[in-house]
Amino acid sequence: MKVCRLEDILPTAGVCALVAGEQVAIFRVGDEVFAIGNRDPFSGANVLSRGIVGDLNGELVVSSPVYKQHFSLVTGRCMEDPSVSVPVYPARVEGADIQILKTGESPCRT
Description:
This protein is mostly beta strands. 0% of the residues lie in helices and 44% in strands. The strands form three sheets. The chain has a four-stranded antiparallel beta sheet, with no helix packed on it. Strands 1-10-9 form a three-stranded antiparallel beta sheet, with no helix packed on it. Strands 5-6-7 form a three-stranded antiparallel beta sheet, with no helix packed on it. The protein is globular.
């Protein structure tokens, strides 16, 4: 599913898109894109797309704006509590467009 154009997202920033009825946080890091569930499992708020992207111990993460837990953009795993994770969705850049595949079940669960 096409969600937006790559140029619509500033580098190291995120946006939220509704994909098959689910809020998905999409992040641009250089010319790569990553997509995870937008819901912060600790607060229950849909805010991860507003988090700060960074590197934690060599892993690309987003910091939740609520309680500041870090979630891997690759695996969805919470760095502070590995028993918690957010869904991860396949994302790619096709031409100038960002595409997200939502298949119903994510490889990572909370």
